[in-house]
Amino acid sequence: MLDVSELDTFYGKAQVLHGMSFAVGQGEVVALLGRNGAGKTTTLKSIMQLVPPRGGRVTFGGRDITGWPPHRVAQAGLGYVPEERRIFTQLSVVENLEVGRQPPRDGAVAWTEGSLFELFPNLAERRRNAGKALSGGEQQMLTIARTLMGNPALVLLDEPSEGIAPVIVEQMAHAILRLKAEGLTVLLSEQNLHFARAVADRAVIVEHGEVKFDGTLADLEAHPEIRDAYLSV
Ligand code: ATP
């Protein structure tokens, strides 16, 4: 469904991705793992064309989206949830969701406020509250929920478990498993191996902007030396 092929991405003269290649199949949950600064965020931004790669190709649903403006990439069905929470602090939870509303894709069931409140019950309780009144974890949930209102076919989640309370991390994992059950495809970046184990089918380990491992979580368990070499555990 998503094919990332030989991406070279730079910030100015500094090359951060070096021939980054991997694929995500329809309905899969894939975790991009790696230490701080390994290039996970840059990979997600390169896929969205927010930081356009200088070499390589991104294909999504059979279409080459390399070089497209990011809003067209989003219209093509890619939803991006950045690490920093992006909500309107003065607007209520319901109003924030309305801002994200886009028509459903062909044949797909559209997300509604009702179905999103089932996915994130905390947000239902806070529906009339202003964004700024929410906890960090609730803001993270609202950012994801607002992206889902755009009815993407694939969601890119940048460190969904980062900086939130353990009980919320558990709810987040549960929500991602629900998304998978609904048929959504998910690519998430993570430093938390425990979280990746709970939600992902496959792990892609990144170091210095290159893929060092691509396999199932079970394969990774079978090779603790890979985990020790590339992940902080
Ligand atoms: P983190 O968990 O810290 O987000 P990451 O694996 O997502 O780590 P990236 O954010 O992709 O890593 O960063 C990869 C490299 O690119 C790092 O060396 C970082 O310092 C550098 N970098 C990131 N953003 C920029 C930028 N806007 N300008 C210059 N260099 C950047």
Keywords:
single chain; about 230 residues; alpha/beta; Rossmann fold; four-stranded antiparallel β-sheet; 10 helices; binds adenosine-5'-triphosphate
Structure overview:
With 233 residues, the chain is of the alpha/beta class. The protein has a domain at 2-83 and 151-230: Rossmann fold (3-Layer(aba) Sandwich), CATH 3.40.50. It has 10 helices and 10 strands. It has helices at residues 40-48, 70-75, 93-99, 113-119, 121-125, 136-148, 166-181, 193-199, 217-221, 224-230; strands at 2-11, 14-24, 29-33, 55-60, 63-64, 78-81, 154-158, 185-190, 202-207, 210-216. Helix 3 runs parallel beside helix 6 (136-148). The chain binds adenosine-5'-triphosphate. The site of adenosine-5'-triphosphate has 13 residues, from strand 2 and helix 1.
Structural class designation: alpha/beta
Major sheet description: 6 strands, mixed
Number of helical segments?
10
Level-1 CATH class name of the domain at 2-83 and 151-230: Alpha Beta
Indicate the radius of gyration in whole angstroms: 17 Å
**From N to C, what is the helix and strand string?**
EEEHEEHEHHHHEHEHEEHH
**Roughly how many Å apart are the termini?**
31 Å
Task: Identify the strand order in the major beta sheet.
Answer: 6-7-8-3-9-10
CATH architecture of the domain at 2-83 and 151-230: 3-Layer(aba) Sandwich
Report the average pLDDT across residues.
94
Which percent range describes the beta-strand content?
25-35%
Unreliable residue runs: none
Q: Kindly report the name of the CATH homologous superfamily of the domain at 2-83 and 151-230.
A: P-loop containing nucleotide triphosphate hydrolases
Number of strands: 10
CATH topology of the domain at 2-83 and 151-230: Rossmann fold
Q: Which percent range fits the helix content?
A: 25-40%
Keywords: Amino-acid transport, ATP-binding, Nucleotide-binding, Transport
Domain ABC transporter: 2-233
Family: Belongs to the ABC transporter superfamily.
Protein name: Amino acid/amide ABC transporter ATP-binding protein 2, HAAT family
